[in-house]
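Dear colleague,

Thank you for sharing your sequence with our group. We've completed the structure prediction you requested, and as agreed, I am returning the results in plain text so they can be pasted directly into your records. Please verify that the sequence below matches your submission; if there's any discrepancy, let me know and we will rerun it promptly.
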Amino acid sequence: MKRLLPISVALFTLALAGCGEESDESPVDGRDFDAQDYSEPRPYTGRVIDGYLRNARVWLDMDGDSQYTPGPMTIKNSAGTEITLPNGEPTAMTGEDGKFTLDTTGLVQDPLVSPDIDPRDFPLFAVIIPGQTLEQTRMGEVELEDAYMLSAPPGVRNVTPLSTLVRQRRVIGVRDLTATTNDLADALGNVNLLSDYVKSGDHRAHAYARAFARFMASQFPDDYASLLRGGDGRERFLSKDAAFLLGVSFVRNALDVVKVVDEAASQGNYENVDVDGLALPEVPIELEDPMILERQTVLARGEGSELPASMSNLGVSAELVFDYSEDGRVTSITGHGCMMPSLREMARLINAGGKIANTGTQWMPGISLSQESAGFYEDEGPDERLVFDWENRRATFETTTGCHPGLASSSALGGVAAISYEWTMANTQVQELIAMSGDKTEVLEPDYQLGTDAFFGFTRTVDGTEEEIMTLSGDVESCDAAIDPDDAGAALLVSAQQPYTVSGSIPQPDGFSPLALEFDNRNDRLRPLRFGFLDPDMASTTGVNNIEGFDWAFYYPFETSNEFVEEQPNLIGTAYLNRRGGSRACGREFERMPSAAYARVNYTYQRLSEYLSGLVE
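Please find the predicted structure tokens below.
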């Protein structure tokens, strides 16, 4: 037998257009019965419901920022005409039974300037004020101690946790649950998500709503809650991006919340579910919306399997895809083709709490030059994966390829790890990062003296032998006096250097030293440009011709380009792996992109909100 679903808002409105007179009372499902324009000022009424909520702040969000905006404020109508609202967004406090009445007289316009503004074109918002908002229960009114925010789609006047789910899905851009088939739609069944479930006695909808409210309260910023506790709900705190990220996390986790409620409802008895005692998901969240690294595309397939190669002859050999949790932490890096995780980059990420945006320069490349990588890349499906377990300070690297001599490979990801990592911390920084593979143990011990966000010294031992010791031997020093005035406005300029040495058991070729990290430190930035390093495994890869060592060179988007991010200026656009170029003068315009290289790595970024929204369906 087919399951009957509640009809959508649009269909409901169309079906009832022109039927009967306007009413100040919201129907049970929270939508307007009439579809006529407002021809004269009249109150706009509705309810705020978890249970019925008294002393909650409600407002009409006319500027789309998810916060109450006082007057005077200016908006544009559909014709582009600017309209000033002296009193700001219509707002009120809820009374008994959660009822509210918004004064919409300020939405009446001079007909020579603009049509009247219809409140049904805008979403309603409500905020629960801790210590002030009261919930009506069978046992009387209960003072709520946790803040959270509710909303409803335009035209819907029951503002509930369920209407919040409906609106947030629309804001994200995914289909209404009534118009799609997915696990959440199946789990919710025929629950009317826009109804006054208290009035209709829908205990199942009420149980879901209460659980949703608890989840939203668990993610509500503590500082915002404290601000509300001493205020009246009109306090502004959240950015538009933060409100959007809260909504995305709610939508992403709604199914898990529903499953917990269903499991607690013995034989469908939702009326007696102890929602306050449920073990709901605990999901940390990031309320900034930084640009995060989405993928690195590695071009390291050489002409005739030989490297270096000209740019025109370098083909794609791998693609690394980065995955994240709601709080912006990297959960895994998946390789289509081969990669080689860098212990130094892992330590930088760990020092940033797993949040790649906090590293500034995101994930300097850790790649494989194996020509086998291209074949794996062309095959369907992922080939390698680096997975982080932040709570237990562990990570694992799995591979199904033959790109790494000496590493065990599996027939499929999810099997035995080729490399297991663990780390210890001291004063929020990595003290020791250990990589174990077979009989080999590799240990990185950072030395943060004279270090920056991008670089620090370290000692790397392999089975007890100090194979590589990188020592920062001085501070980052600017070289303003050496800059040619004609080069001062260059897109990239070597305006600072930091000396360092490399020692240990790795053989050093002639001309490898002296060494200096190169930076562009203009405009209070510290952009890494070039650094030299030794990697015997990379140099001995079949088809690779190198005895001098390597340089990584980094290039950034022009400040006039769409790719440039003002608040995150250190986002690499393209990286090149070159033959070691020796010591070079400070104060010079940075070299143009090379015509030949061992590898080119293209970076692609996206906003955290875009990434999380893409995971909803």
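Summary note from our side: The radius of gyration is 30 Å.

Kind regards,
the structure core
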